[in-house]
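Methods — Computational structure assignment.
A single polypeptide chain was analysed. Its primary sequence is given first, followed by the predicted tertiary structure written as structure tokens.
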Amino acid sequence: MKPTKITALAILSCFIVASCQIVPQEQPISGQFEFAGGYPTEVTIQKAYDRLDVQRATQVYLDFMPLASQNAIFESSIRDYGLTKAGDVGIYTQPGEGKSVATGLTYNTESIYATIYSDLKADGPTVIETPPNVLGMVDDGWMRFITDIGNAGPDKGKGGRYLLLPPGYDGEVPDGYFVFECPTYRNWIMVRGFVQNTGTGDDAVSYYKKNFKVYPLATGPREDAKYISISFIEGDTTHPRDISYFELINKIVQYEPASAFTSYELGLLKAIGIEKGKEFTPDTRMKEMLAEGVKIGEAIAKANAYAHRDKRARIYPDRKYETIFIGGSHEFKDGDAMLLDARTLFHYEAIVITPAMAVEMVGVGSQYLCSYRDAENNFLMGEHNYKMHLPAGIPAKDFWSATVYHPDTRSLLQNGQPKPSVSTYDKPDFNKDGSIDIYFGPEAPEDKEKNWVRTIPGQGWFVYIRLYGPLEAYFDQTWKPDDIVKIK
């Protein structure tokens, strides 16, 4: 009997060892920390502070993304396009062509964009004269909504005069304006014009020169204001994704009033060395912490954008299409709470904050359906061929489009075509029942070139369906597109 007991014990021991090998013990994400008599060891102290500094750098990367994204647009306007004074106007005079790889996050290929920034610190109260029948907005330096202008704004698309007041302004306010006080000195004024109104090329420049002006209230319209076509000019309006991100944030902090930030935001920045009135001079160690924070923050931002955990990201329960405004709020609010990950999703992937993109405005605003995955829930990749079916009666009063972007640049896919999209204006071929099929892949299916967007093997892509002037059928979901299917 004794040998039998030993054999059984040996077998049990082997089973335990095998179990330990098959199911490894989980390691804490933070790694191992050591303490002596309750006190942290010197190694643990250094490790803890390294973790803290990287964590704070990561949080700054995520939390300050709207500020960095908006001000990257201002910096590009000056650096790349020569719009050196507030009130100079940059115009994308061709709706589709002429936008470089980093022109802007998820621009469309149908609108005639015009972009201006204000500088209330330099100019004081500033007037905007807006064109008729445009979709536009004013966002502050945090890319927060101040007002719509145009069709969704108080001028109701008839054109009007707006007055932007600096932070803390206590002077007289004249009559005859739609008046808004801004939390920041620099603010973004952007409109999307319809090609049938603005024309293209030189006609678009002439149209905006006549109808779109921004100037100091004290001086009146600027005689030297520039109206520049920025199509086909290389520029980068996207925020940095390296340590220069923090240099941009520091530049903004030094320029804007302290009131543009909460005490917590200023405290978070101070913890990594950014403080108003002081130089930003991180040492070698801190530069390593900041670089690591950006690396982690970038991974988190991509996960938020393309694999969001909130089920409300899905527009339809039985489709892969997602919204860029989770919860339907342009402030990313759920009651009194801010949806932090939803905010990061939007600002990593897109620009322009306005309720006209988020709430139900039948026939007036715009709506966006994003898809990153096919019907089998795989990410969309450029080496495969796909088909997207849009049922008859696409619910868009003004126009619809399907536009392709790269998941890293979040900008128009540079695929060698004049524009990576199919839209109303292309007059694509419809099926006999009024529906339409759009194709994506390295090569066009036979006789489907008008309905095809080229993709790049080895490169991911995603698509936005845009509905300008969305109709009731979109909001009540009696119309919805089929998922994108891979063609076997």
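Note: The CA atoms of residues 381 and 460 lie 4 Å apart.
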